[in-house]
Amino acid sequence: MSTASIPTVASTPTTPTTPSPAGTAAIVTAEHVSKWYGQVIGLNDVSVSVPPGVTGLLGPNGAGKSTFMKLITGQLRPSKGAIKVLGEPIWRNPKIYFQIGFCPEQDAFYERMTGLEWVRALVRLNGLDEKAADEAARRALASVDLMEAAGKKIGAYSKGMRQRVKMAQALVHDPQLLILDEPLSGMDPIGRRRTIRLIRDWGRAGKSIIVSSHILHEIESMTSNILLINNGRILAEGDVHQIRELIDEHPHTIYVRAEQPLRIAREFLEKPEDDVRSMKFEPGAVIVETGKPDAFYARVTEMAASGEFGAIDEVTSPDDNLQAVFQYLVK
Amino acid sequence: MPIHDQSYRHYGGGRAPVGRSWLIIAWAGIWTFLRKRAFLGLLFGSLIPFLVRAAQFWGSANMPQLASLAPDASTFRRFLEYQSFWVFVITVYVGAGLIANDRRANALQIYLSKPLMRSEYILGKLAVLFSFLALVTLVPTLLLLLLKVAFDGNFTFLKNNLFLIPAITISALLQVLLASFTMLALSSLSKSARYVGILYVGITFFTSAIYGALYAITGSSRVSWISIGADLEQVVDVIFRLKPRYATPWQVSLLVIVGLIAVSISILERRVRGVEVVT
Amino acid sequence: MDAVVQLDDVTVIYGKNQALKHVSAKFAKGAVGLLGPNGAGKSTMLKSLLGFVKPDQGRMTVLGLDVAQAPLAIRARIGYMPESDAHIPGMNAVTFVGYCGQLAGLPAADAMQRAHEVLYYVGLGEARYRNVETYSTGMKQRIKLAQALVHDPDLLFLDEPTNGMDPKGREEMLELVRDLGHNKGVSLILSSHLLPDVEYTCDHVVVMDKGQIATQGPIDELKGPAGRVYELRIKGDLRGFLDVLAGQGMQTQATDEDVMRVFVPDTLGNHQAIFKAAAAFGVQVRHLRPSLPTLEDVFAKAVGEE
User: Fold this and answer.
1) Is ipTM beyond 0.85?
2) Partner-chain contact A305 C280, CB within 8 Å
3) CA separation, residue A219 to residues A101, A226, C174 (Å)
4) Given this structure, which CATH class describes domain A28-239?
5) For C156-176, what is the mean pLDDT?
6) Per residue in B79-108, pLDDT tens?
7) The domain A247-329 is classified under which CATH number: 3.10.350.10, 2.30.30.50, 3.40.50.10890, 3.30.70.260?
8) pTM of the model
């Protein structure tokens, strides 16, 4: 069997992503949405469908990310256009709020309450009775590893703990959709790793999550599905690697570390169908730019497998990642 | 090298020894206010009484029909008392935000990571308020004394009232130090200059009001020490060898003033700390 | 090793809490990362080094000077970039940075010259006459760096320098930090929770936990050698390929992440086995590399996490 036929975008994902949860209906749809504040335009005619699963929301400061999040959490009303969340319009629709959990960036707590009291109070607003609220609160706090400190006043919490309490209140009512704004800020490395794992677990369990963050390598650890906003418009959406392939002006850079780099390089040059645009050499490695990544990678795989050209020890692409996509698209 | 590195360079110049920072802080603070036209107008307004008095001195020395305007020791006392209004206004305008604005901008974190002592920071801020207040009390009063001698053409007045020089100096200093320290201490308690201003005005009027009420009730002025303004006037009266205007012993009044300054210093010591700087 | 900062058996007690317990550490010249969970004692250590907190026991030296005896002389030679927003109210950028230079001991004219230079260096050249209060988050971070650099310090303390910045700003800030540490001969101590940032800019780390040093040393040494585990990403039928790998005896991990890990047992030789399997099954190998322990692994091990 030759290289497997590359599936089209609409069907199954080509890179490891979370398996499709219940239904593939979009969790958020925006149709020709604009939002302005006086003269300042926050979002400019945005139309997008966010698929279920974990989605990373990125963009420079002031690009419209927080406007977008406020619109989908029902805090703002679009100046034009329609926003639907989980199939229904969100503005002034309290029914839907039960299905959504929001973890905002700012801290706004009643410092005198303990963590448990606060989360319990918030979940009671969702209509649970005292006993159910207590159970749900405890479960939520346990899932963010905060049970030990649940009885202490929030005023005494460290930054990382405050962040985790915010997460707990977002998921205490077991919502279908979670919207998280910089959820890891202030957390130490262990907390970050745990939270990333938690988000991935929720995605696998069928929840949908929209995460906004500036720390690109962390978004990459959570998902490969992104939504990039710039200047109030959608710049790119979908799988990172697919987006990367579509950026024509920047041919793929591939770093190959090998025993005999020159020999390998000669082989690349002999095959015009690999579309080698340029080559650079480093001690023990060759760095190739190619316009046809599929053909090239397939060739490298075969060459490494056959062993005819010496051992090939490393194949990596320094610019097939989120950082590069961001850099190339956001000018 | 034909192409020069445009990026970061090292500094090879001289560095001042530590201990001068308070001057830098003071000068920056003073300049901030001198730049404002509204404030310059205020300063000018505060010096009009000085000009009026100076004109009176000149008139009484040179025109016989105005001889009744000739000053005596109590004239200077009354001038100082008159200027306390301007002291109040300038204290609130300049002093309310001196430390409060820094706290709001989290500037202490910057200041205290530089090679300066906490006391230098406090001294520098104090100097800002002190300079302007001295400019409307100590300086014009001493100048008036000088002008009196100049217009008279002789030292007679001065020889008869030699005590005026230390009296003016000490009274003005007392007034200025009391206002500066208390306002600075209040300013260090909050992040809002507006709130500090209101607090200062409030406390001043409140203490006066309480005294006024008690006076009305008891008919005696023995409790005048409650009013801070009254304490100051009492002590300055005594310094100028005039009859004290309240029944309270002047020592009590002085104690209140000194006590307020001491409390202010301890508040400042507590509030300007490096430990809170690094979170 | 030339240490710019050294702590000898330092103990700091706040009330009942022992914030630093018999801490002995050496911060090498160059770029050192200071890591640790919240509450580990990092900020207490910083406060002690700046001279704000007197230790109950022990000795600290910064740039060869004893902190207990010459705290002001030390502060004249170090720069501190605080984590939270901080500025002097009512000044524009150039005045602010020049003022900081003067406070650090520079004559007024020199301070102004340095202020302009440093503002260009951090990327605020065009905005240097604007009032600092109008600055965006990224600009505020840069000016905090500028005020720490204006007096040409020998040692920089940086506390979460990329806080709140967008990806482009983060990249530029990290480049600046790296440039300062590697090319401009400024020693720096970088405290951050973002381990990849620390890996990019620093060569050494000091990891703290519960008031003590959990581990310290050059990052490369702490990471240790690579094993027989490889990072792998393919393009093609993933599920099918995973079955193939399993069938050949290669264990896989983290298969739903962007990059998975594959363990190649000795019996199969080396990583060429992966290429062979991929070529035979018809998938492209898009990423293959020996899996190195990351700084995150070092950190996790140091604080006793799995």
Assistant:
1) yes
2) yes
3) 19, 9, 19
4) alpha beta
5) 94
6) 998 999 999 999 999 999 999 999 999 999
7) 3.30.70.260
8) 0.86
